[in-house]
Design brief:
Layout lengths: L32 H4 L4 H11 L5 H14 L5 E3 L16 H18 L5 H22 L2 E2 L6 H4 L6 E2 L1 H19 L18 H19 L4 H13 L12 E4 L10 H4 L12 H9 L4 H5 L7 H9 L8 H4 L2 E3 L5 E4 L14 E3 L1 H6 L5 H7 L7 E5 L2 E4 L17 E2 L5 E2 L5 E2 L4 E2 L6 E5 L1 H15 L8 H22 L29 H6 L10 H15 L4 H11 L38 H11 L19 H4 L17
Parallel strand pairs: 1-7
Antiparallel strand pairs: 2-3, 4-14, 5-6, 8-9, 10-13, 11-12
Helix pairs in contact: 2-4, 2-5, 3-21, 4-5, 5-7, 5-8, 7-8, 8-9, 8-17, 17-18, 17-20, 20-21
Length: about 650
């Protein structure tokens, strides 16, 4: 298990890779960082962008399970020990890589006096703060001011700094970076900046917008200070990322000449793809939210597969959500889809149940529900003979192509058998690798933060009401997810005039955003605001969580700091399980005690003490705390000290 990071010798070497930028306005091949990253600021910044990774595969392989279950954003059978933690990764020290580059750029500028390189310094510093916020979310204090200074200052045992102090420091640094970026004599190398092409005004807006991410985490402890920070950012001449043109959404490279394929396509490793929860899916479909089509996959039961089950006399084996939307002709064959129809009808979900097997044995879960959702056996398989059989997925899962550019997709098809007995498996695949686009911070997030704070304040911010910021945020979020899905060429996103493999099913429709869909969504009861503060705040927080579906840490933190989803909510309810107290559900990750011979031991143990972490390692979690007051719930990181309990927002 990888617990709290220990920082000693920090990244003495730098990786090199050459690539072609994804930025739309960039052409040609970037300067080969193999020639520049060891000394030149522009190459160091390019290397920092490559290593900027808040959502690597370890987040999606390990952490997402805990984030999604503890905040109840995924469906399935939650084991009785889901309040525990057995492994984690990809979080806690992600900022070190970019901090190392930032420090080297600072050294270069100090030695040469070339302040015209401050743009590269600021950009790398901004990314470092973004990652450091992410790393502190689950672990609290970290080394920062003395970290990554072994090669220039010989520091082997950097001090830890509290999150409270770091927030103040990061706000100061962000203001300094904004000032640097507003200078008129900065040099630029567009080919070295895959994110913004050295558009320093956009980097300044990014820096200013990061203050809102800090303010959101600051609010439960220091509401007045958080509100003041938001007001300052809203009035800052740098501006905020309120337009999708300013989104920090990009791919790192389109062509690799050396180094890792991951820079182009994202991870090649396996990742978890949690199932959609019944409550989240019902909410999104009820809102006619197009993002459901980009975040989740369609199930396998297209009209041809449904007909194959009918032909086998197995109509009753179809998932209940599928059967509910099948309209059959007079002969019992598939005629058309009912309900919302394509492209909505094949987004199906799994209810949240505590220990489905035990619940079934206790008579709390019916035989049909247990079999359909948790123990299907061969229910969703069609077999013609031992060599010809297919399994079909009955539910919707997170779309892996939104975080992996080299994931092959096989269209669900029915097997056919000719008169001479020959069986055709009808294999239709998309095996094309695609450069991975990722979304980090965007106008959707920023506008929704402004809606949150304007609602909490009870008056306008920057001349706009919370309602105006909210609707702008939701609209931007949908547009951003559509852009991300299109850029990543996820399954079922195609041009109606050129359907390719999707022509297989005549009822198929593209998942691409259609004209008028956002307006329709905004008019639904699940989305439109009422003017009642508590009800509207719930909708704002829910929309932040929907927006953060591709950023599981931010989604978890939003649920943790807000108390939503809410127990008993009519929009998005939080399930309260018998025998598991809300205070048993963790609010941070496990930290472990350093070994006796660790040179950082005293520093780390002092940091734990100052944070109030009294119970370390596996002793801090598990079923023994299901009655309540689990150390991982009550021994909180600083931003979480005064936040509401799970499912119980402050009214």
């Amino acid at each position: 298990m990888k617990m709290k990071k220990i920082f000693s010798v920090l990244f003495a070497g730098l990786a090199a890779i050459s690539f072609t930028s994804c930025a739309d306005d960039l052409v040609g091949t970037n300067t080969d960082p193999a020639n520049v990253t060891k000394t030149l600021p522009e190459g160091l910044m390019a290397a920092a962008i490559n290593d900027f990774q808040p959502n690597d595969y370890l987040i999606w392989y390990y952490n997402v399970k805990y984030f999604n279950q503890w905040s109840q954003m995924c469906g399935g059978s939650y084991s009785s020990d889901y309040t525990g933690q057995t492994e984690n990764g990809g979080q806690g020290s992600q900022y070190i890589a970019t901090l190392n580059y930032r420090n080297k750029i600072q050294q270069y500028i100090d030695q040469t006096g070339t302040v015209e390189n401050n743009g590269f310094l600021a950009a790398t510093g901004i990314m470092t703060i973004y990652l450091a916020i992410f790393d502190t979310d689950m672990y609290g204090s970290i080394p920062y001011t003395e970290a990554a200074h072994y090669d220039d200052k010989g520091i082997l045992t950097p001090k830890y700094e509290s999150v409270e102090d770091l927030y103040d420091l990061w706000i100061e640094e962000l203001n300094n970076y904004i000032t640097m970026l507003q200078a008129g004599d900065l040099v630029s190398f567009k080919g070295q900046d895959a994110a913004y092409g050295c558009d320093w005004k956009k980097w300044a807006r990014f820096a200013n917008s990061l203050k809102l991410k800090i303010a959101a985490r600051l609010y439960n402890n220091e509401p007045a200070k958080a509100m003041q920070l938001v007001e300052e950012a809203a009035s800052n001449k740098a501006g905020l990322m309120t337009s999708t043109d300013d989104d920090f959404l990009f791919c790192k490279a389109t062509v690799k000449s050396s180094g890792s394929d991951d820079y182009v396509y994202g991870t090649g490793n396996g990742i978890l793809s949690p199932s959609a929860s019944r409550s989240v899916m019902n909410f999104m479909l009820g809102a006619k939210d197009p993002r459901v089509r980009f975040i989740y996959t369609k199930n396998s039961f297209n009209s041809s597969v449904v007909q194959a089950f009918i032909d086998k006399g197995r109509y009753d084996d179809l998932p209940s959500e599928v059967k509910a939307n099948v309209i059959r002709d007079k002969d019992g064959n598939f005629e058309k889809w009912g309900g919302m129809g394509e492209p909505w009808v094949r987004y199906t979900s799994v209810p949240i149940v505590l220990d489905a097997k035990a619940s079934h044995a206790a008579g709390k879960l019916s035989d049909e529900m247990y079999e359909e959702y948790f123990n299907p056996g061969l229910r969703y398989e069609i077999k013609l003979d031992d060599d010809h059989k297919k399994d079909y997925s009955p539910f919707s899962y997170y779309s892996t192509e939104m975080r992996k550019g080299r994931d092959d997709f096989q269209l669900p098809t029915a097997m056919t058998q000719s008169a001479n007995g020959k069986i055709d498996m009808n294999v239709l695949q998309d095996t094309e690798d695609n450069p991975l686009y990722s979304m980090y911070m965007t106008a959707g997030e920023v506008n929704l933060y402004l809606a949150e704070f304007a609602c909490l304040k009870g008056s306008a911010i920057a001349g706009k009401t919370y309602q105006e910021w909210y609707y702008a945020g939701v609209r931007a979020s949908v547009e951003e997810y559509d852009k991300l899905a299109k850029s990543n060429k996820i399954p079922y996103y195609y041009d109606e005039g050129n359907p390719g493999i999707y022509a297989y099913d005549k009822f198929e429709k593209t998942i691409a955003l259609q004209k008028g869909e956002i307006d329709t969504m905004l008019a639904t009861d699940n989305i439109k605001l009422t003017g009642t503060k508590s009800a509207d705040l719930e909708k704002i927080y829910i929309q932040l969580m929907m927006h953060f579906s591709e950023q599981p840490d931010d989604q978890y933190v939003t649920a943790r700091r807000s108390g939503y989803p809410k127990v008993g909510s009519k929009l998005l309810p939080f399930e309260k399980f018998d025998g598991i107290a809300l205070s048993a559900i963790p609010r941070r990750f496990v930290v472990s005690e350093p070994t006796k011979d660790d040179i950082m031991r005293d520093i780390v143990m002092k940091a734990y003490e100052e944070e109030g972490f009294k119970t370390l390692g596996t002793n801090s979690q598990g079923v023994q705390y299901n009655g309540g007051n689990a150390p991982l719930n009550v021994e909180r990181v600083w931003p979480d000290k005064n936040a509401p309990q799970w499912g119980t927002p402050k009214e």
